[in-house]
Amino acid sequence: MTAYIVRRLLATIPVMVVVAMFVFLLLNLTPGDPAAVIAGDDASPAEIEGVRRKLGLDRPLWEQFVIYAWNLARGDLGTSIFSNLPVLTLVKQRLEPSVVLAISTLTVAILLAVPMGVLAAWKQRSWIDRTVMGISVLGFAMPVFMIGYLLIYVFSIELRWLPVQGYRPLAQGFEQTLRSIALPSIALGMVYMALIARITRASMLDVLNEDYIRTARAKGVATAGVLLRHALKNAAVPIVTVIGIGLTLLISGVVITETVFNIPGLGRLTVDAVLKRDYPIIQGLIILFAGVKVLINLMIDISYTFLDPRIRY
Amino acid sequence: MVGRKSILSAAGAAFAIVTALAAPALAQSGKTLRVAMHADVRTLDPFWTTQTIAGIHGMMVYDTLFASDHDQNPKPQMVESWTVSADRMVYTFVLRDGLKFHDGTPVASRDVVASMNRWGKRDGAGKPLMGYTKSLEAKDAKTFVWTLNEPYGLLIDILAKTGTSVPFVMREKEAMVDAFQQIQEVVGSGPFMFKRDEWVPGSKTVYVKNPNYVPRKEPASGHAGGKVVKVDRVEFVWLSDPQTAQAALVAGEIDYLESPAVDFLPILEATPGIKIESHPAMGTMGILQLNHLHPPFNHVKARQAMLHIVNNADYLNTIAADKRLQTLCYSYFGCGVTMETDAGSEPYKSAKDYKKAEALFREAGYAGEPITILHATDHQYINPANLVMIQQLRKAGFLKLDVQAMDWGSVVARRAKKETPAQGGWNIFITGTTVLTSSSPVTHTSIGMGCEKAWFGWPCDAKFEQLRKEWAFAPSLEARKKLAVDISRRAYEQVPYISFAQWRNPVAYRADRIAGVIPVPSVPPMWNIEKK
User: Fold this and answer.
1) For the whole model, what pTM was predicted?
2) A159, A166, B296, B476: which one has the fewest Cβ atoms less than 10 Å from its Cβ?
C-alpha cells in the first residue's frame, strides 16, 4: 500500500507540469488584456501600453513562461496583478470559507441523501421511493441561485433568523460560522443530496438483489442490519466516489452559491480573476485545484480497500 | 400576514439544527458603517488605475488640495489660501495648519509637488495641465508655487475634480514611485485610515477613523467643507450580486448601497426606513463608440447617419425603466451640469429617419460590408444597450452586422486594436462614462478628436481640438459656456461618438439607522455620516 501511495504521489508531478504548461499557454491565447482593465475605461492606448510594459506582459511568451516556471518551481505562485498581494495570501484568505462550506454542504447532503437512498431502494416502487426520487429530481432541476434566493427571502427577510450574506470565520465562534453558512449549505446541499440519493438508491438496488442479502434475511438478520451492515457497506464504493468528486467540485469553487450568499471562497476568487485577466491568480488556482483533485482521488482509491477487502493495490 | 408567517415558521421547523441557532440577524457595532459600493477595492493606488472604486478608496484615505462643493464649484480643502498673478500664470498656494499623514508626519509642500507630478503623468486632465506647467516648486514647508507657461484657466477646477483620477496628496515617498507602478503603502492624510490587515480583496475593505484629522470649519458640501468623521469604522462589503445587495439592505445588514440595481428600486422604496437619493449631476452617459479609422465610420456621413438611427428613448426604457431616472439628453457634456448644451443636435431630435440614414451611408460609400460590433454580454448596462443598438441597426434594414459576443475584459483588449475589422479590429463598441467626467471638454476623454492621441476610435479633427483648447484657456465661465456651444455644434457635425442615453444612479441607505449622507455626483464620501 505504501509503495502504491508513493507511486501515485510521484505520478502527480508530471500531471502538475502538464497542467502548468497548459494553463499558461491557454491563458496567453485567451483574448483580453489585464493592462487595459487596470488602466481603466478612460485610459489612452499609450497608457495601457505603459501599464503592460511595467507588468512585463510585453515580453516574449517564452520569457514569461521561463519566469513563471522558475517561480513555480520555488513554490512561488506569483503576485496578483491588481491587488499586488501574493497569490498564496489570497488563497489562504479564501481557503477557510471554501473548505467549511464544502464540508457543511456535504454533511447536509449525506445526512439527508444516504437514508433517503436506502429507504427508496428498500421500498422500491412505493410512495416513499417516488417521493424520494421526486425530491431528487427537484434538487437537480431547481437552479441553486433560485433555491438560494428563496431561502434568503424566507429565513433572512421574512423570519429574520439567519443572515442574508457574508461569512463569519471560525475565529469568531463556531455558532457564528454555522449561522453564516447555514443557508448556502442547504441551497448547495440540495443538488448533492439529489445526486447522492440517486446513486445510493441505484447502488443499493444492485446489492439488495444479491444472494448474500437473501442469505442474511434467511438467517433472520433484522431489516436494519441487512440494510446497513450488509447492503450499504457493499454499495458504498460508488457512493464514496460520488462524495469524493463532490468534495473536489465544492472546494474548487461553487461560484453561484458563493456569489448569492457573498461567501468569499475560492470559486469567486477564480471567476473574478478570469474576468479581470489576473493571470497569476488563475494560474495558481488551477494548479492548486489540480493538486486537490489528484489528492482526493488518491484518498478515494485508498478508501476502497477499507470498504471492499477484495480491492488490493 | 400573520398566517403566512405561521406557515413559514412551520416550514422552518424542518431545519431544526438551523433554527436552534436562530437569533436576531447579524448584530452590528453601533459605530461601524457597513457599505456596499458598486465595485470591490482591488487596487490601492488611485493613480495607477482610473477605476472609480480606486477613487472612492482614495477619497477615504487621502486628502485633496481643492474639492468640489454640491454645485460643483471648486473650494479649498488642504489649501488655506492662494494667490494668482495678474497674468494668470503664477499660482502660490499655502497649506493649512494641522495637516498630518497617518504615520504622524506633517504634510509638506514637497509631498504635494511629488504627488501632483505623479498624478499628472496618468490623469486625462492632469497630463495637459502638466503640459502647460513651467514649474511646480515647494517654496517652504507650507507654500508651493505652480507656474504655467500659458494662462491655462483650469488649474483650480482640475485640482478640485472628483472624477477619477482625483489629484490626491500622498507622502513624497509614495509619490516618487513610477506612475505606472503600484505604490506599496497606503498612508494618506485623509479622514480615514486603511486597515491593511483586514483587507480581503474581492470581499471586504476596512477603514477606521483618523483621530488626528483636522477638518475644515465650513459645513460639508459635496466633497468640500469639513470632513467630520462621525463613525469609528467603515467596512466596504463587496456584494457582486445585485439581488443579494438589496436583500442585505432590506435586512439591515448594510447601511448604504451605492449602486442599487434599477429593477430593485421599487422594493427598496417600499421598505420602511430605506431612502433613495441622488444628485442632479449624478448619472451615467452611454457611449456608442465608432471607429474612425475604417469604413464606413471613417466617413463623416456614416457617423451622421447613425444619429438618424439611434433612438435614445429605447435605451433608457431598457436600461433605466423608471422614468424618474431617465434624462433624454442631447448634450455631449451631459445634462444637469454647467456646460449643458444641445447645440447642433436639432436635426436628430425628431423621429428616426432610416431612409435618410441609408442615403447618408450610401454617400459614405457603404455597400453592405459587415459592421463589426464588440458586444460585451457580461455588463449590467452595456449588454442591454448592445441589444437595443443591434435591434435598431437591424430595423434600419440596410446594414449588415457582424455581432461578436464576448466578455468585457475581451472588449477592452480588442478595442485597442487599430487593425481593420477583418484583421481583428472593430467598428462599434458600447461603453459609458460618468456625467461628472463628461461635464468638461477637458476631462471628457472620449470626446477628444486628437487623432493618434485620441481615445479608442481615434477621431481626428483639428478644429475641434482647437475649440477644446480655447475652452481650457477661456478667462471666464461665460466664455467657457459660449465655447461649449461651439464645441457641441462641431461635435454634432463630426460625431466623435454617439451618446445614446443619460440615466441617474441613485444611492440607497437606511435612513432609520444613519443620517448625514452627502449627495454627490461621483465618489460618495463617508464622512459626515452618523449612526443613529
Assistant:
1) 0.85
2) B476
